[in-house]
Amino acid sequence: MAHMAIRMEVNEFAERFIPIPPGILLEGRLKWPTDIFAELAEGGTLLESEIAKRFVDAINVYNVSPGMKMVSSPDKPELDDVEDFKQKIDAAFFRDGSVPTDGRTHWADQLVSVEFKRHETNKDPFDDRNDYSIEATADERKKVRGQIITYAEVVFRVQHRTFLFMLLVIGRNFRLLRWDRSGTIVTRAIDYVAHPEILCELLWRMSLQTDEQLGLDPSATRLLPQDHGYKLMDFYAQERDSDLATEERVLEATELASMGDPPVFKYVRLSFRTSLQGQWPRYRLEVPCDDGVRAFLVCKPHFYANGMAGRGTRGYVALDCRTQRFVWLKDAWRVYYEAMMQEGEVLHGLNAKHVAHIPTLLCHGDVRDQTTKTCDIWEEAQAATQQSLPSSPSLRTIPLSSSATLVSPQPFKTSSSRKRSRTEVEAEDSDGSEEFTLRRHMHYRIVVNEVALPLSEFSTGRKLVSVIIDCVEAHRDAVQRAKIMHRDISGGNILIYPSIDCGKPKQALCVIWKGILCDWEMSKSTKVEEPLALPRQPPRTGTWQFLSVGMLSGKPKAVEIPDELESFVHVLLYYAVRYLRSNCPNGAGFLDTYFDAYTVQNGVFTCGQKKESTLKDALLEIQRDVPLEFASPLDDVFGELLPLFKAYYKVVTYEHVESEAKKMLPPPIVAQGPPKADGDSPPPPAFLEDRDPSELANLKSLLAPHRKKKRKVRSLKPTAEEEDDAALLADHDAMLSILAGAVDSLEWSPRDKVGDLVPDDHKPLYPVAPEKGPSVRTVKRRRFASMIDYGSCHSSDFVAPSKRAAKSMVERQ
């Protein structure tokens, strides 16, 4: 979702978001000299570093924000990996008790972030002219806007926040920004040298706010080294001799005798221990449960979603304070509207129906009714009338009713805190409307028992197919037993869960890898009809790379079983090409072309050509006339499944053509009065009388010597066999049968996994998320998870493929 800004006049911003607490009089505030920013009068010619130095000195010398200090970070990023990109914001406000002195950014402690820019029009990322979008479009302005969005994103990633204030200083002007997961609220640019009282009062008001009023999440308690929870995390992060190796095997007697209760796998404790490294802050998070709230200890997220606007999902390997067990905790800002069930509600229902191969719900709930506020301002702005600014922008003279969006207003929508219907929100999502509509988000957390491995950790091609079978079965049971459609089948949502179970009958306990289908937040009841109004950009639910050809057609369509089954095929193909031995000389290039490519039809981003031709023509090729082969039962899997989808799309296309043809038929002619008798019919006009047959024969023979043999035109109508094949995708049985046949084959190689064939420095051929293009949720768990050496969690005699092996494999081809 694109990030959008909304303009608000400074006095309304102050009254709404930084009010003066009860008992404190405005007249009792400190008096600031009118020339407090005199040294910045020539701000139009100063460098950013000099603006920052003089500004920080003025704020601190005159104690504009009592109890807070403004500190610059002139040239040093964070000490370690607190954030991946080593971003460096210019300055920030800190509480007096936690003021840094080393000149570094200290993302975890910032209360209000500050960025400085030179006094140039092209350095202001926003445009106050009423006839223009407030989000300025010049390249340099876009660059600055992208920069401050990234800074806000880093703060939200490291801290637990509901919103963030940011001060943007551009030469002699300033703007105050408020970020949340819906968008940004921005004040007009004001000359603080000419009107110092406005900026000083705003910063004074900020100093009076509590941490919660400054955006810190009260349900997340920061842990310090002396706290019991902090020490508890260190204790449970330590390696244990009783921890179990990860690979599948029959457990030995010594392992059975020493393993803990409950058993802990090495990869789980390693994931938790790795999250504690570096300077990431540790927290105790509250999660609603049946008897109140439960507390969980977390540090660095195992994965996080990119971007500032949207769900902002973060996943943690957490320690349960009640049981001291490791669990999986997901923190997100879910889209908040009617008929949208919480993911925990879905899992609770699936668990009650005994659907296997899905997470086991521990607890979940909305966090203290925390919702985004930017969308409320957006809705109000639709009804507001633009009013001109007064010549002197006093904090108390700018009219409160002058809020204006920084983008072109759309027709008014009722402003309230009500939940919007699914239809409303999906329509907003679908018409290219990231620019025009903001979504309301609710803070939400969910905890499940299972801490799983990413799908990329599969050991062999056979195990990859086996994991897919488990998840197809989970999908089948969810549809049949609970009437729930997942709607986001992707590589990030199919995980491997090592568990202890009996293998074959009468066999000892074993470590067995099973598939687990997770992330049911986008799921929907099959009993609820989806809105199919035709917007400019049809709604797409899911991950671009793994969506079906039908869902990427650019036409409105409900997610159906064939779409989900096709997504499973795409997942299988992706991981097979990326990690298994094949005849593909350039796996990374194939993945780019097949999964990330797109076409544009009438301004709508649709399916890439290679994916579409593979499914519709049943041709899985590296290049023209060169089939992709794995020299394993996978060839049979794709060879049997793709013709079913070819038949399915032929049936779908034919039905669509027939439906459109019926719409084009002229309306029936209604007879006017009783029909006339045959004798009453007038004779046909003379020019319609039959020609001489011999004359017609002579005319027809003129082309005969030149006419070629008539080419046989392929019929659009499916054959009976094709209709039967297409019908096999109406449920899960055919796919499960084909996959099971492959798993049962004896032709698998135990060493067919050769490592990751996509180099670390690979640059995709296609932008994964083109501007105004596909709404992509990238394959999750890739950021932090990629830093964990899961291979170290295997037994000493287990041989796992390495990057070096993958590289040598490519070199041999």
From TrEMBL:
Domain of life assignment: Eukaryota
PROSITE patterns: PROTEIN_KINASE_TYR
Domain Fungal-type protein kinase: 137-232, 297-574
Database matches in Gene3D superfamilies: Transferase(Phosphotransferase) domain 1
Region (Disordered): 406-434, 665-691
Gene Ontology molecular function: any one: protein kinase activity
InterPro entries given in the database record: Kinase-like_dom_sf, Pkinase_fungal, Tyr_kinase_AS
Residues that span the membrane, as ranges: none
Cross-referenced Pfam families: Pkinase_fungal (PF17667)
Protein name: Fungal-type protein kinase domain-containing protein
Organism of origin: Pycnoporus cinnabarinus
Lineage, top ranks: Eukaryota, Fungi, Dikarya, Basidiomycota, Agaricomycotina
